[in-house]
Amino acid sequence: MASQYSMQAQTLVNGLPATQIDVTDRALAYGHGLFETLLVLNGKPVFYPAHLQRLMNGCMRLGIPAAGLERQLETDLECLALPETPAVLKLILSCGSGGRGYLTPDPASPLRILMLTPMPTYPDQPERGVQVRWCSTRLARQPLLSGIKHLNRLEQVLARNEWSDPAVREGLMCDTEGWVVEGTMSNLCFIKQHRFCTPLLDQAGIEGVVRNQLLQLAADLGLETEQGYYTPAEVESAEELFICNSLIGIWPITRLGERRYTPGPFTAKLQAALQQRMISC
């Protein structure tokens, strides 16, 4: 179970303190928007340029105007009291309010929401190993939406509601053709025959910021890196398995279904290298 540091939550809507939005907002009606979840360390959002780049790519895909967005977000961040202690910064960008129908308003007026909340802590030390399971819910293959962090998360909601056992910390998902894609809230990586492997995300899934950092760090450690299509059996036969995202960093997988694993040396090296990069970025 997670506990949280004591700090006051903060919310900004278009740069002003607020907790409500228009009921006609397209994020609410259609999920027409994007989000980013960032770790705050020492008063700074970790890997902010990479998160911003993914957000801008998402704007291009979803037709959300982004002129001036980078400066607006910088101004918003200046209005938040970012703590020295770890915290969570969630950024939501909606295409804004509009009338009935799917056609994007012209002009569209995007809406920015920034939420700063305490960072969860985990007394059970999942960074030392977690149990995960396979989900039966499948991810649709849609290359127009793959990679970006859009607001439509119903597949993940359905998958996460497949289990209630608190001992199971994550569920791994395949696409409708049976290829392994990711976890409900994380990316999946594994070590096999001195190769760092992670699913290719050209048809489904989120191209995680930490996942991309680990591809670089793995190469620095002398590992061959590979992005590909993998079956569940191929994943299960790996020597080391772990999940990752911007908040948890790396959690080694010690049990997947009925199979058990021991956190390996490359996982430990990647954990240390990632932690150092997070602190210094």
UniProtKB/TrEMBL annotation:
The UniProt record lists the EC number as 4.1.3.38
Q: Which UniProt keywords apply?
A: Folate biosynthesis, Lyase, Pyridoxal phosphate
CC cofactor: pyridoxal 5'-phosphate
Species source reads Marinobacterium iners DSM 11526
Top EC class per UniProt? lyase
Reaction catalysed by this chain?
Answer: 4-amino-4-deoxychorismate = 4-aminobenzoate + pyruvate + H(+)
The pathway it acts in is:
Cofactor biosynthesis; tetrahydrofolate biosynthesis; 4-aminobenzoate from chorismate: step 2/2
Record Pfam families: Aminotran_4
Q: Which GO terms describe its biological process?
A: 4-aminobenzoate biosynthetic process; folic acid biosynthetic process
What this protein is called in its record is Aminodeoxychorismate lyase
What family is reported? Belongs to the class-IV pyridoxal-phosphate-dependent aminotransferase family.
One MF term in GO for this entry? pyridoxal phosphate binding
**What GO CC terms are in its UniProt record?**
cytosol
* Described purpose of this protein according to its UniProt entry: Involved in the biosynthesis of p-aminobenzoate (PABA), a precursor of tetrahydrofolate. Converts 4-amino-4-deoxychorismate into 4-aminobenzoate (PABA) and pyruvate.
Self-association state and partner proteins as the record states = Homodimer.
